[in-house]
Automatic annotation (TrEMBL):
CDD domains: 23DHB-AMP_lg. Gene3D superfamilies: 3.30.300.30, N-terminal domain of ligase-like. This is Long-chain-fatty-acid--CoA ligase. Pathway: Siderophore biosynthesis; Lipid metabolism; fatty acid beta-oxidation. It is found in: Membrane. Pfam families: AMP-binding, AMP-binding_C.
């Protein structure tokens, strides 16, 4: 039986086919098409090894054949947890070829996350790495086998030496591929989420392939593209916007970095003459501050995409002058909708907006708290539906009732405005708001003002409980390495008041810290910051 998901209504599905968005091809066509014309082209490299398209295709078929021999079959589910490595893509395509839908955990996920994915998905298979502390002995694996009866196979890649995973994919053998239905769930994306338990996002072959192919075109990828994947490989951004899959679509090469730090990335950029990459804003800031003195040749870079969190205007302005390449802002979500600034956008739009949707059939509603459309150009809650935006979290009927309106529009939790040009500007999240006794503060608005101060490197503002007002605001501040003035709460309050903002927006508390905690993909982890108040 196919894996369940909430389908698109038939009239919309028909429109998406008629317009050519849904091609009724499985995601595995990305490799097959390269085999015909570009089989010796380098698909993947990681600094030590590289594999051609022919090898990537052969290895993933070999692994699929070996999994089939173990009794794994179409419509099963799986959990993959691998670092940024060639084996991630071999495993991903092996499962797609077999019609097994994986969820790909981030490498820094720990047992709580992995167990809850297993809980939701009831996988028959886990592919993991002994580089992760949970899998460097058998304890956790045994626990999983005991707890999840569904589980039949756990394959741990030992990374060095002769692992079971390598043995399987290096052994050339006949693979009898099942027929895949492009309307089926191909795999599950992870939601950043706002609820206690993680939510899984079913992505079909048809909808995901469309987002990949259209993104590759928007970003002008071609066979000469050398893309550095520095963010966690399974994340929607480096996987599909246009990410590694977009690069495979055009026959370019993906180079894998362990992480987005300048130390990990700059030498790879020089060595492989990287043309494109994707970063989150904190990583971009590191690149900007290390580019000059690092002594690497970064001139091959043509485009740096930045997304995942709001990029401040002052940082956006530095990209071209310091890194000598074009900036593209990307506002996307694993649930679907992705917006890009375009190559031919004016510089103002590139610096000041988060781009416009991929598809002419991405429908955007911007509504107020009552769900009514706001006047054009006004900030409101973003609702969207379209040819690659999902229709429901996996097995989450209650949450889905909240997350979708009755026309099937998904509510992303973002506060945005749309300019006459169609570009969206992200102004905050309705979850990321401080309600100060009835007065609302958009945290990002105040953060951006503080970021304009030369001595501040990073800032995050979160709510803290207050017995009178319900909530107050606290700004966690990370100073630049060599501040020119001695900053204090007093100085910063004065600075903000001088900029002319409402008094209630001035943070009630400033806390100076060495670094902000980050989530798995490198966003500021506000939940962790809020938790510091609960412990007091
Ligand atoms: P996730 O749920 O992890 O897929 O994260 C998606 C969310 O990240 C979006 O709904 C936005 O809140 C945020 N996001 C992604 N890209 C941007 C961006 N360029 N600017 C502001 N927020 C962003
Ligand atoms: O933050 C995201 O989830 C994101 C950002 C940029 C994303 O999913 C994407 C591009 O596809």
């Amino acid at each position: 039986m196919s894996i369940e998901y909430t389908p698109w209504p038939t009239d919309l599905a028909q429109r998406y086919r008629e317009k050519g968005y849904w091609q009724d091809k499985p995601l595995t066509c990305l490799l097959e098409e390269q085999l015909a014309t570009n089989s010796n082209g380098i698909a993947l490299a990681d600094g030590k090894r590289s594999v051609s398209y022919q090898q990537l295709s052969q290895y993933s078929s070999n692994l699929a054949a070996s999994l089939a021999q173990k009794g794994l079959k179409q419509h099963d589910t799986a959990l993959i947890q691998l670092p940024n490595c060639i084996e991630f893509y071999i495993s991903y395509f092996a499962l797609l070829k077999l019609g097994i839908a994986p969820v790909c955990a981030l490498f820094n996920h720990q047992k709580t996350e992995l167990q809850s994915y297993c809980e939701i998905l009831q996988p028959t298979l886990i592919i993991a790495s002994s580089m992760h502390e949970l899998f460097n002995d058998d304890q956790f694996t045994h626990k999983l086998f005991n707890r999840f009866n569904c589980l039949s196979t756990v394959i741990v890649d030992h990374h060095k030496g002769n692992s079971e995973l390598k043995q399987a994919y290096l052994l050339d053998q006949q693979f009898n591929a099942p027929a895949l239905n492009p309307s089926d769930v191909a795999f599950f994306q992870l939601s950043g989420g706002s609820t206690g338990t993680p939510k899984l996002i079913p992505r079909t072959h048809n909808d995901y392939l469309y987002s990949v192919v259209a993104s590759a075109e928007i970003c002008q990828l071609d066979g000469e593209t050398r893309y550095l994947c520095a963010l966690p490989a399974p994340h929607n951004f480096p996987l599909s916007s246009p990410g590694a899959l977009g690069v495979f679509h055009v026959g370019g090469s993906v180079v894998l970095a362990a992480d987005p730090s300048p130390t990990s990335c700059f030498s790879l950029i020089e060595h492989y003459q990287i043309t494109h990459t994707a970063l989150v804003p904190p990583a971009l800031q590191l690149w900007l501050s290390h580019a000059a003195q690092a002594g690497y040749d970064l001139t091959s870079l043509k485009l740096i995409q930045v997304g995942g969190a709001k990029l401040s205007i002052s940082v956006a302005e530095q990209v071209e002058p310091i890194l000598g390449c074009q900036l593209q802002q990307v506002f996307g979500m694993a649930e679907g909708l992705v917006n890009y600034t375009r190559h031919d956008d004016d510089i103002w739009s590139v610096i000041n907006t988060q781009g416009k949707p991929i598809s002419p059939d991405d429908e955007i509603k911007i509504v107020d708290e009552q769900g009514n459309d706001v006047p054009s150009g006004t900030v409101g809650r973003l609702l969207t539906r379209g040819p690659y935006t999902f229709r429901g979290y996996y097995k989450s009927p209650l949450h889905n009732a909240d997350a979708f309106d009755d026309e099937g529009f998904y509510s992303s939790g973002d506060l945005v405005k749309q300019l006459p040009s169609g570009h969206l500007v992200v102004e905050g999240r309705d979850k990321d708001q401080i309600n100060r006794g009835g007065e609302k503060i958009a945290a990002e608005e105040v953060e951006n003002l503080l970021l304009g101060h030369d001595d501040i490197a990073h800032v995050a503002i979160v709510s803290m409980p207050d017995s009178t007002l319900g909530e107050k605001s606290c700004a966690f501040i990370v100073l630049q390495e060599n501040p020119t003035t001695k900053l204090s709460a007093l100085v910063l309050r004065k600075y903000l008041r001088q900029l002319g903002i409402a008094d209630f927006k001035v943070p009630d508390k400033f806390q100076f810290v060495a670094a902000l905690p980050l989530t798995a993909v490198g966003k500021v982890n506000k939940k962790a910051l809020r938790a510091t108040f609960e412990q007091q």
